[in-house]
Amino acid sequence: MNSQESQNDFSQADAAFLCRIVFVVILIDLIFSGFSNTLVHQLQSPVLKFPYLDPVFLLMHFLHIPEMVTSHKLIAWLWDFTLFASATAIIFLPRKKWLIVVFIIFYFIYYIIFNSFGAHHTHSLVPFLLTPVVFLFSKKSFSLAWQGLRYFFLFAYSAAFLWKFFRFSWLYCDQGILIMKKNLAPYLYFNPNTFLASVDFWFINHPSFLQVLYFTGFVLEGLFIIGFFTKKWDWLLFIISLILPFGFWFMADALFYEMIIFSLTLLSPGTIAKARAIVSARFHNRK
Questions:
Q1: What is the DSSP secondary structure assignment for residue 228, as one 8-state letter?
Q2: Could you tell me if 50 and 61 are in contact, meaning their C-beta atoms sit under 8 angstroms apart?
Q3: For residue range 157-202, what is the model confidence (pLDDT) as tens digits?
Q4: CA distance linking residue 180 with residue 249, whole number of Å
């Protein structure tokens, strides 16, 4: 019993290794946000917002917290600096939980700002918001929290499958091409001569291939239901979870690359330990 529990638990070193991986990805995304002009100080004091019917968003805007951060240039710059500084510090000091708390607080406000003013409440950045919370737990509690994140990940893709299944969209023979036309029309209109546009036009002229891609993605999402009953096929779900975001990007122009962070939850503690040992060995050899 104890040996079985130990196989399902992460050591503190492995948890720190996972923390570094997660925050390296988050830091890369923050840099990408800078190039995309979507950091807080780059939003130019936006006024049009879309909190939808989300009580958290409504409360935040009722308190005028997003507006206060974005409308003052100095505060906006300090907000972005704190995000970069805390994420960088955590990579070097992954066991300093107060740093993680600071990052979560500042990133939560950034999440509200981004999805209210920039992404129109599309729930982008959810993995970057939820995953750091897990690293506030210690020892065995961390392993349980990490498994909870795994089940949330399984639910996300399983729910996407069930949403399509009960709406019977998988039975509609033109669903694939309609998704591509609706989401890629602006890109194809403004960039008709690019290589990617030529690929998209080819698929639009051959809609049966798009339908095959759509149905394949539908089936692959459904396979995540298996993960609720066994971890035996987690290696396969891990591979699928790396492929699906590319399919979303190609067919729907929706780049959910942040979901790849959740993919780490499908790797066993043994796999994480081996990866950490390999990285540590290479790092020490370079020294």
A1: G
A2: no
A3: 999 999 999 999 999 999 999 999 999 999 999 999 999 999 999 9
A4: 10
Tokens 């009580």 belong to 55
Residue 102 is which amino acid? V
pLDDT tens digits for 61-110? 888 898 899 889 999 999 999 999 999 999 999 999 999 999 999 999 99
Domain residues of the chain, as ranges? 10-136, 137-287
Which DSSP category does 173 fall into?
T
Q: DSSP per residue over 120-155, as a string?
A: SS--TTHHHHHHHHHTTS-HHHHHHHHHHHHHHHHH
Look at the pTM and tell me if it is higher than 0.85.
yes
Rounded to whole angstroms, the Cα distance separating 230 from 80 reads 41
Residue with tokens 């399983």: 158
Query: Residue 117 is which amino acid?
Result: F
The amino acid that residue 100 corresponds to is I
The answer to whether 111 and 132 have CB atoms below 8 angstroms apart is no
Quote the tokens at residue 258: 């942040």
What's at 265, amino acid-wise?
Answer: T
